[in-house]
Amino acid sequence: MSVAEEVKSSWADEVEEVEGGSLPPPVEKSDGNSKTITEYSFNEEGKKIKITSHYRIEKHRVARQIAKRKTWTKYGLSKNDKPGPNPATTITAEDVFMHFLTNKEEEQIDQEDLKKKLLDQQKGQVKCRLCKEDHWTKRCPYKDKLEPLRTSLYGEEKVEDEPQQGTPGVPPVDKTKLGGPGTQGKYVPPSMRDGGSKKGESMMSARGRDETATVRVTNLSENTREQDLQELFRSFGDISRIFLAKDKNTGQSKGFAFINFKKREHAAIAIQYLNGYGYDHLILSVEWAKPSGTQ
DNA sequence: TATGAGCGA
């Protein structure tokens, strides 16, 4: 919220005005959770006013996701790639910057103060603290790039778990179809943890199939085909079988599928990377499969 | 909405 109050000129201010015609510089305080900006301006009557703005720094789930994913190291064929996207395997679409500072009253205040601010701009009394041009910092066209990304994305939470098995990395999957928030903290049974490197019982399905390296994919769009799944999952490791559940009569996809990897650790990585990803406008859920018949 | 087939010596 922002508060504007008239400020009586002090002797020091008078001197300052005479000398430079300038206002006290804006003061910005931040404690990690919120931010207070105090800046000075003139109102229509030429009176000096003090504007105090409080911002809440949003600990956005998506921001954390993005920050976390950026720390993953590369694996497989991309293991030795430099950090950042490799143009040979990755298409980078246009960047989308998000507002991570929220200010509920911002719109209201903006409307109220719009004329005032425009006036101030004409007088050349407004200088952006970020790019030094004559608009308000709040309205800086580069604000999204310059300010919140650093402070809000990084230096906030340390990233804990890395993908298993030391073969992590940004997968060379089709980035044009991927993107979006993820779901974390899914329950993993003890026998399935650590990428299954500890040899437990061999999970056999009722049909006698080895299910130790099988993932179940749900929330697939109905026009996803086996071939699409193959393309999506192949970058994580060799696949021995893909089953896309379809209606026997109509052939209509039921929206879920099973992917059998040859190696369990590859399945684990696929889950790490693809669970929660957006694919064809839906958010994929990728989890360990249970042998059919179990609940 | 949701844990996959049919075969039938």
UniProtKB/TrEMBL annotation:
Record localization: Cytoplasm
Region described as Disordered: 1-34, 155-211
Cellular component aspect of the GO annotation: eukaryotic 43S preinitiation complex; eukaryotic 48S preinitiation complex; eukaryotic translation initiation factor 3 complex
Residue stretches of biased makeup (Basic and acidic residues): 195-211
Keyword Flavoprotein belongs to the record: no
Main localization, broad class: cytoplasm
Domain (RRM): residue spans on this chain: 213-291
GO MF terms held by the record: RNA binding; translation initiation factor activity
Keyword Calcium tagged: no
GO BP term, example: formation of cytoplasmic translation initiation complex
Keywords: Cytoplasm, Initiation factor, Protein biosynthesis, RNA-binding
Subunit structure: Component of the eukaryotic translation initiation factor 3 (eIF-3) complex.
Function: RNA-binding component of the eukaryotic translation initiation factor 3 (eIF-3) complex, which is involved in protein synthesis of a specialized repertoire of mRNAs and, together with other initiation factors, stimulates binding of mRNA and methionyl-tRNAi to the 40S ribosome. The eIF-3 complex specifically targets and initiates translation of a subset of mRNAs involved in cell proliferation. This subunit can bind 18S rRNA.
Matches recorded under PANTHER family: EUKARYOTIC TRANSLATION INITIATION FACTOR 3 SUBUNIT G (PTHR10352)
Similarity annotation: Belongs to the eIF-3 subunit G family.
Protein name listed in UniProt: Eukaryotic translation initiation factor 3 subunit G
Source organism: Halocaridina rubra
Lineage, top ranks: Eukaryota, Metazoa, Ecdysozoa, Arthropoda, Crustacea
